Amino acid sequence: MGSAPGSAAGPAPLGLTGVPDEATMRRAVECAVRAPSIYNCQPWRWRASVSDGVDLFADPDRHLITTDPQGRDLLLSCGAALHHLTVAFADLGWSVQITRLPDPENVHHLAHVQPRPVAPPAGMARLARAIPRRRTDRRRFSADPVAAELLDTLVEQAASCGAELYVVTDTTTRRHLIETITASASLQRQQLGYAAEIARWAGRYAGPDDGIPPGTVPSGLSRPGDVPMRSFRQGTLAQPPHSFEHEDASVLMVLGADRDDRLAALRAGEATSAVLLAATDFGLATTPLSQPLEVAQTRASISAHIGPQLFAQLVLRVGWADRGAPELPPTPRRRLDRVLLPSR
């Protein structure tokens, strides 16, 4: 998928009435599955029907039980896909009504989405053009600072999804956050089964439809003081030329919620999508960092720094890609027929 500007889903039709047709449903879901997910495991299933709308389900077979024992990463991933779906429908001219966690007897049923033929929220469709351009960039960023007004817009995007985005602005908190990320990596390496789970999803043979390709993982050493990335084996991505000659001016942000339950994690995933797409639309590079929130003690430490009534859900890194850094290729996705359930 290229990076040329333009709509992810296509031009919005005029004079919408009733319900979208099957082709529109499929186009929206095709955009939704471009959402980021833990290890690019794509832990979702969908059911799309002209008569019943779209239903989002978690795929329990793709729950990473060692990395993500509480299932928070799974819910964040599915929440991001849910927001991508909403953006895609908006680009096609539809607003949506979402019922989250609609079936208390089916924990895997995460959302029911009913398209409506009314104007979508202002600015929602604009985010669609960022869907094919968004990447997870683990390389060093440039020394160019991110303007405060851009960060303020990202905070507003998170708030629109019911989450709070805490922007780390002081060096002491940044240093603490980097130390916490480092500590979480050390603790996870000691977990039985963690290395095997990493090996299953990263650095595998060429051409899979999921997982993390080696070409998206930087090779070589990092510079002291850099934000640590999760360690994946067999990375082949070169750092930008001369990037070690300057500081990495990336900004760290912590996404938080005022609750600590499944709904809060799902909504935080929606906020993650909103922030990442808005940042991509600005031309910023982005990196979601879930590792420090996967370990109980490091998550508690981060939560304590962002506010007494907030629960940390995800760390996000944004900044300007280094000059001369080549465009990253898109990560693979499963075919639509692999993620669509039969209509009822």
Question: β content, as a range?
Answer: 5-15%
Structural class: alpha+beta
Number of strands: 8
CATH superfamily of the largest domain: NADH Oxidase
- Report the top-level CATH class of the largest domain: Alpha Beta
What's the number of domains? 2
The global form is: globular
What string gives the helices and strands in order? Answer: HEEHEEHEHHEHEHEH
Predict the CATH topology of the largest domain.
NADH Oxidase
Spatial order of the strands forming the largest sheet: 1-2-4-3
Which runs of at least 5 residues are low in confidence (pLDDT < 50)?
1-7, 10-14
What does this structure look like?
The chain has 344 residues and is α+β, with helices and mostly antiparallel strands. It has two domains: 22-133, NADH Oxidase, CATH 3.40.109.10; 148-319, NADH Oxidase, CATH 3.40.109.10. Helix content is 31%, strand content 15%. The strands form two sheets. The protein has a four-stranded antiparallel β-sheet, with helices on one face. The longest helix is centred in the C-terminal third of the chain and has 21 residues, at 262-282. Mean pLDDT is 91; it is low at 1-7 and 10-14.
Annotate the secondary structure layout.
Elements: H1 22-32, E1 44-49, E2 53-58, H2 72-91, E3 95-100, E4 109-116, H3 148-160, E5 164-167, H4 171-189, H5 194-201, E6 251-257, H6 262-282, E7 285-289, H7 296-306, E8 311-319, H8 336-339
Question: What's this, in brief?
Answer:
This protein has 344 residues and is an alpha+beta fold. The chain contains eight helices and eight strands, in the order H-E-E-H-E-E-H-E-H-H-E-H-E-H-E-H. It has helices spanning 22-32, 72-91, 148-160, 171-189, 194-201, 262-282, 296-306, 336-339, and strands at 44-49, 53-58, 95-100, 109-116, 164-167, 251-257, 285-289, 311-319.
